[in-house]
Sequence to fold (383 residues):
Amino acid sequence: MAAKILFVGHDANRAGAQLVLLHWLKAEAAQGRKAYLLLEKGGELVSQYERYARVWVWRKGPGNMEKIYKKIPFLKREERIDREPNRPEIADMLRDFRGEKFNLILGNTVASLALLQELQGLRVPFGTYVHELSFSLSMYASEKDMGFLATKVSKVFGVSAQVNRLLADKFQVPSNRLFLLPPIAELVKSKGAKSGLVKEQLGIPAEAKVVLGCGMAEWRKGTDIFVRVARQVIRQMPDVHFVWLGVGDNVFSAELQAEKEGWDESGRLHLVPNKADSKPYFEAMDVFFLSSREDPFPLVMLEAAFQGRPIVGFKGSGGVNDFLKELPDLLVGYLEEDEAKECLMNWLKKDAEVLGTLAEKLKNSAMNYSTERFVARWNEMDI
Fold:
């Protein structure tokens, strides 16, 4: 009999780990399992979560996280989060949780560890699904949180081998409580009719080559690296356009826009806000540049692979190592921008036969992270 799980998330914003959780809840529902989710705070995905799970929100106010994050991006989590709960409703929530008799309380990301500690009175075993590497761990979890993970969480699931090595070596998570669980991705091939519209909207000629990067514009995602490498490539291949999907209302995005205005007179670099439907952008691209300094297992990498497009990434930056281990020609030295430039230009010049062969390999690799494969891995763990 499958375990009855209370999933715990830190928010419902549209980001990688939150989307993984959404796909997981959807998969639970497809198997006829009732799902339960406690969120520390809300966000735009709440209504979608509610399609597949009963949802509680611990703290319904917007809190201070977003306001401070825009001003001081690298503050640690415990310094920038107001965790004041909805106190009149907490007693009712805890009563609900006791009545459900859960077998496991599973936090999605280390950002949920503080809330897990608030639930210790339920006397239910804890699990945590870790999507973070060093930089994000320092941002989203305190020393107390990581000590709790190492000593009190009975099952720790890492999204990649690199994550698990870090948890074992730096935080002494015992190997018998550490499991590898690559993320779930909804891989759906769209009809491709909107890809031409994307180029038209951005003013990109239909025949032009496009390099895409995607994610919230921030230091960890290496959006500044993407912009610098774009400048180098465009100097030598002026018909190529670079598109970053995910700029927002923060200092980092503003600095990138100012840098672009300083050199991109020809309009070859496009900094685009995040979109609910990103698939047309992936269809419009020719090469995907994963410029992240660290990225445990990015869903955008799987999306690019499913489209059959070359992915250029940095060795040692996270899950890209696991995913591209059979395709070393797509990996360059860690943060080696000149190597990245050369690799991008090389793949932009490849002929259709070479690209077609690579596309099949990438699509097949991406299917290893489908909903069906994720469910099979999870069921094999016999939680």
About this structure: The longest strand covers residues 241-247. The chain has two domains: 5-181, 195-368. Residues 63-82 have pLDDT under 50 and may be disordered. DSSP finds 18 helices and 13 strands in the chain.
